[in-house]
Amino acid sequence: MITKKIGTVILSGALVVSALPSPYLLKADASSLAGTNLVNTTISSKAQTGDSASSKDLENMINTVKSKITIPSDLSEFSYNYNSGSSYTDSTWNLTWANKDSSKSIYINCDSKGRIQSYNYNTNQSYKPVYLQGELKDKADAFIKGISPDIYNKLQYTDASARSSYNGTYSYQYQRMENGIPMPDNTVTVGVNYQTGEVTSYTVNWLYDVSIPSSEVKITKEDAASRIGKNIKMTLSYQSAYNKDSNGKSTVKAFLVYSPDKSYISVDAVTGKIYDTQNLWTDLYGNEKAGFAADSKADGSGLTPQEAAEVDNIKGLITKENAIKAVKGNGKLLFDKNMTSVTANLYKNDSSNGSSGYVWGISFSDPREEKTGKGDSYRAHANATVDAKTGKILSYYSSTNNYYNSATGKWESPKVKYTSKQGKGILEGFLKEQIPEYFKNSTYSGAADDYIIAYKDSKPVYGGYSYNYQRVNEKIPYAANNIIGSVDGVTGKIYSFGYNWDENVTFEAPDNIISAEKAFDSYIANEGYRLVYEIYYKNSVTNAKADASYTQTPLVRLVYRTDITPNYISPFNGKQLDSDGKEYTKTTNLYSYTDIDNNSSARNIKLLANMGIGFEGGLFKPSQAITAEELTDFINKAGFYADSKNKLSGSTINRMEAAKYAVKLLGLEKAAKISGIYSMNITDQATINQSDIGYAAIAYGLKLLTPNSNNQLHAGDNLTRQEAADLIVAMLNTQE
After folding, report:
1. Contact, 689 vs 595, CB < 8 A?
2. Residue 216's pLDDT is what?
3. What is the C-alpha to C-alpha distance for residues 351 and 284, in angstroms, rounded to an integer?
């Protein structure tokens, strides 16, 4: 049930006698927004600073901000925070003004020059939809222009959306333009309250004082596309779509896609150079290091049939002692003998694909007191999960010794005895024992050096290796499933292992697929491949040790870039696919309809559409009966949620059923059940069941239901789509 408070309720035409118990009397809210006069503010909280900032600096910053933003006079409580920044970030000021009880506040973040980076005005109210998105864009424009005219003159409006019914705002997005070319890495977002029309938030991501290259290009878009095609590979893989069948059981479909093997690639529009990163790192050795990232989702009678099934499930489970022994007794795992403190819990592991089983979750730790002063501070710990049926280890992780002596402040010098190749062999031997079928259906996809255990001649010495294996079907990788493992190079023991593996997957057959070249032609033709100014960062490090000095220089270049989303291409017809494997259709944040002009509910329909609540296809069909499922979906999207006791069902729903449902969601069920106190100024009250009179009266008073021109409520008629829109907007209008 929604937790927002209900504001003033006027039960016009519905008589509520004075005998109504006080808990049900609804009190009007007399609060209003404060005036907009500037206020002389006294600093009432202590600053928290990195490097010092003088009182004069603070005074200047306050005056700079107040020259751009009007602070309401009741926000008299002021506090601030100063962050001195770093070698590659600017210093920032956080200024906050609040009223006495902190129910209203303005928070502003700005840089050292007083340029506002973010603004938030919090009032804890105003959720009623009054304005349409198109009616408030001018407010957003004016706010940007008022606090940063130099930014405003370089902006292109891109989109608008409703954040959610909970914060009551429309969000307006803009991108930077230079020389008529988009610079999408710089953006501005403004939030405007759709009840009051006030700006409640502003966020800018902007690179100031940077040189913008000429807009002249020497490489054509077609030439750049050809260069991209030669430097990326369209890889064929399986992606997963999770659904539920009619019985609520989860199913997994693995669908085939082509997608680029690089998440980022661009071509310099002047030189034709290929870029595969926006970050250029230079260290004192002049080399770069690349690794892989693997996403581990390891796991970690008198009885009812369900109870009996659970009893059967736990028959034959291994004991806690045997589960612990399975881990401690496996000689291939890194296990510190001092980890004598052990806890174990048996639990049912329900996976997202609907399968389940019992698992032992085990934690090991070294209980000895740390002796930091003697250089004996390392205390090992580990976690494992063990299949309670088979005794197989499902996942394992152990801490590793960093070989740093805290007493001497020096690195010890352990010998790395095992190479990455040897570690791979050790891990694969373990995988063949623990998960032979999974390992057989996977392929090695990469390795990376892991943790640092020392420095030699200022160069890092790595103590471990991490490996990734991708699941395959007919030699095609399945992106959702993989196996990971890590091996310690000093001991040759496995300190990390886990896997994510879907059962009962339906794999799409790779028959009659197009070539990778044709897939690329389809991919590059999609929206998102364009000429842009992009920001890139030149980073450097002067020392590889713990006291390293970093510098970061932002620069701008003119490139052809592939901002194509989603980047899945069907291997059967070359069409763009969404994350469920369906043909991608570009969605907008606004629903629009061609059949609501001159409809009496048109504005309410548009208000909901602006909040992201509506029907696809361009037709609202206002006079069509709404289904219970559609109404529930709309009400949920508006921010009202029912508990398990209050659910709608059936293909259609009548007006009385909808009214009762809404009244319950608003928390007024107890008031509605009081008998003998309600009367309505309608002509068909006699047709309403006596037990429903309270619900009908409250719904009538709140305008959840409105009578027709004959002053009849027609409670038994099917609720139409336009009436549903009126009902939901009326529900939102009760909120404060």
Report:
1. no
2. 97
3. 47
Q: CA 575, CA 258: separation in Å to the nearest integer?
A: 10
Copy the structure tokens of residue 278: 């926006």
Q: Are 473 and 233 in contact, with CB atoms under 8 Å apart?
A: no
Grouping H, G, I as helix, E, B as strand and the rest as coil, residue 86 is coil
- For 151, phi then psi, to 5°, come to -70, -45
CB-based contact 518:545 (threshold 8 Å):
no
Which is nearest to 473 in space by CA: 232, 240, 233, 234? 240
Residue 290 tokens, joined: 């690349």
How far apart, in whole angstroms, are the C-alpha atoms of residue 323 and residue 337?
17
* Strands 42-43 vs 77-83: parallel, antiparallel or unpaired: parallel
pLDDT per residue over 410-445, tens digit each?
Answer: 777 788 999 999 999 999 999 999 999 999 999 999
If 0-12 CB within 10 Å is exposed, 13-18 middle and 19+ buried, where does residue 3 land? exposed
Quick check: helix, strand or coil at residue 504? Answer: coil
Which amino acid makes up residue 289? K
Contact (CB, 8 A) for 492 and 422? yes
Evaluate whether 10 touches 29 at the Cβ level (below 8 Å): no
Q: How far apart are the first and last CA of the chain?
A: 16
Partners of residue 482 on adjacent β-strands: 470, 500
**What are the DSSP calls for 26-51, one per residue?**
PPP------------PEE-S----SS
- The pLDDT value recorded for residue 291 is 35
Task: Please say whether the beta carbons of 707 and 680 come within 8 A.
Answer: no
Residue 17, pLDDT score: 34
The encoded tokens of residue 196 equal: 């009051």
Sheet holding 169-178, edge to edge: 42-43, 77-83, 92-98, 105-111, 116-122, 199-205, 181-193, 169-178, 155-162
pLDDT attached to residue 9: 41
- What domains sit in the chain, N to C, each tagged with a CATH number? 14-18+590-732 (no CATH), 42-205 (no CATH), 210-289+511-579 (no CATH), 308-507 (3.10.450.40)
* pLDDT score for 1: 38
The contacts of residue 456 (CB under 8 Å, 6+ apart) are none
CA distance 16 to 707: 19
Confidence (pLDDT) at 646: 78
What is the phi/psi pair of residue 607, to 5°? -60, -45
Predicted local confidence at residue 314, as pLDDT: 60
Cα dihedral: 489, 490, 491, 494 (round 10): -30
Q: How far is it, in rounded angstroms, from Cα 321 to Cα 319?
A: 5
Is the distance from CB of 415 to CB of 423 less than 8 angstroms? Answer: no
Burial class (CB in 10 A: 0-12, 13-18, 19+), 478: buried
Q: What is the largest CA-CA distance in the chain?
A: 94
DSSP 136: H
Q: Tell me how far apart the alpha carbons of residues 626 and 432 are, in angstroms, rounded to a whole number.
A: 56
Left, alpha or beta for 216 (phi > 0: left; psi -120 to 50: alpha)? beta
CA distance 708 to 711: 5
Residue pLDDT, tens place only, 182-225: 999 999 999 999 999 999 999 999 999 999 999 999 999 999 99
Residue 94's Cβ-side half-sphere holds a number of Cα atoms within 13 Å equal to 14
Strand 393-398, strand 92-98: pairing: unpaired
Give 619-683 as a 3 state SS string: CCCCCCECCHHHHHHHHHHCCCCCCCCCCCCCCCCEHHHHHHHHHHHCCCHHHHCCCCCEEECCC
Phi, psi of 159 (to 5 degrees): -165, 165
By the 10 Å C-beta count (0-12 exposed, 13-18 middle, 19+ buried), 202 is classed as: buried
Task: State how beta strands 494-500 and 529-541 pair.
Answer: unpaired
Which residues of the chain fall short of a pLDDT of 70? 1-52, 86-88, 126, 163-166, 245-248, 280-315, 351-356, 372-375, 541-550, 588-589, 644, 736
